[in-house]
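I hope you will forgive my troubling you with a question about protein structure. The matter concerns a single protein, recorded as an amino acid sequence and a row of backbone structure tokens. Please examine both parts with care and let me know of anything in them that strikes you as inconsistent. Thank you for your consideration; the sequence and its tokens are set out here:
***
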Amino acid sequence: MGQNKMTRTNPAFHRLEVLTGADGLSRLQNTRVIVFGIGGVGSWCAEALVRSGIGTIVLVDSDVICVTNINRQLQATSASVGKSKVAELAVRLSLINPDATVLPVQKIYHRSTADQFDLGSFPYVVDAIDSISNKVDLIIAARQAGAKVFSALGASNKLDPLQIRVSSLWDSQGCPLGRYLRKRLRRKGFAGEVTCVYSEENLPLMKADLRCGKTDCLCPPKAAEGQSGDALHAHEWCSSKKQINGSAVHITGTFGFYLAGLVIQDVLSQPPVAAKPSEG
């Protein structure tokens, strides 16, 4: 996949160009980002990136949409239940900016699939996945490939957006996922820099009649007819979870917007590339 270079200004980005200037907008349009995990955090991050002129975005997630996703995931509606998360979001993002290259990848990032992702071809990797083992492997692989990593820590069991923070992963406080992640990374000898979004809030779970992960689970057991992909036929993630957490869109969405903002600010902070002298 080569660089996506746009030579004309899309009028949809006029207000953004007023803020960034033509050079800044051009840099955004020629930036490649890969987002892992297109759920309550990753879906909003992806949309913010496309609405900010990012020229190439790859969406990676093996999951299908569940009715319980509707309260927080951008592409989840009553009409999209059972459909591919990445495919549904890719259609929406392509309508927002037809000039952008939006590539849905129906896979999970795992040790068995890691070699299928050319992380070195992306200057930015956004980690919005839930599995801590996959999260650890992705962070290490992305940093080894030379990509900047922006990672979402736990966005569940929270209601106060004023407690959301951005810091180095090594400095985050009050987030259990961050603590576990640091331990696992240290065990593997990793001490690289990773910027994370997290919250210090941890609310107790309310008692509720949780059906997720039980015999009458609300998740679709298989993809809608005509769908295909690595894990579409085995969408029952919640059955393997130790705990079903609560979540709210104003928290997960804010996490996603923070992640997108980190990418955008970093792109705009880079010095302009000097033009090569003409020959002759």
